[in-house]
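Hi V.,

You were right to ask for the full record rather than a summary. Here it is.
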Amino acid sequence: MTGAATVAQTFAWWPLLNTIDVAYAAEEPFKFAWVSDTHLYPKSVNTRFVEKVQRAAREVQAMSPPADFMIFGGDLAQLGRANELELGVELLNEVKIRKVFIPGEHDWYYDMGAKWKQLFDKPNWTFDHKGVRFIGLDTVTHGPDYWTARKMSPEERMDHMATLDGSVAGPWAGVGRDQLDWMQKTLADWDKARPVVIFSHNPLYEYYPPWNFWVRDWREVNEVLKPYLNVTNIHGHVHQVLYNEIGTMRSIGMLATSWPWPYAPEGVPKLTKPMIRADPGDFYDGVGWETLSMKNDRIETEYIMWGRKEVFVQSPPDSSLSQPEILRPRIADQIWPY
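Predicted structure:
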């Protein structure tokens, strides 16, 4: 694709994409950091991913003024092993500010979350900070159990869940009725005009279901959030710059520290300005982490992308791209266990 823009290596969204108007400002300006999708192997297997986490941790810790907290957005491990998760904790210990974690599918399906819960407690949570309600959603643990009947080993189950091809493990990504009810109760006492920020591993809309770039009950999620006027969803999983709007919810896809995924063959939101394809010879290209600033009436996202200064293509969207909120009947929609 042609027409690339040259911008600073540390860059912010264009004005159309980097502001979410809020009727009530935060009580005072603040920043927080996001790191996700580190996909760690043991050091004896792969040191490149380790080095990237170390770099991100150093940069988060060096923020001036310091971030108020850091969110880890899932897929700390690659194959869900205890030593991979423990390595992630060790590497992120350099970050001394508050750290809060949500799980990714790579963290969970080897031992069904036993080690993750031991390290990080509950996979969903909420807290208020300076006039903003933050919610961490679990979008990965509600996969329909097909492995027990097949007598899969933990290794086989994890291998299925670790693939990008959604036809292998099925449409596992979802929020679940229990969590939808919990989110509704969590927001019940919150002024509908005040800002809400929701962290999730998967996008909360239908981007590209064959890669599980969605949650199966995204329509129900949006029904819960519809009354709230200023909702921002920050998500990982896609390993790419991504932006979408559905109703009053803005969704911002984040970088991975591990590797960049290509954009899907269809469903890329029309408001997204895609990243330029990464250089396969530079394993620091197309990856990084993010800072988010809440000040006055807006939240701004800044991508700390390593590897190159040319980030966006400026040509019109490919004609093959379609809006993700178009409803497409799929077998997966019929098997979701409400």
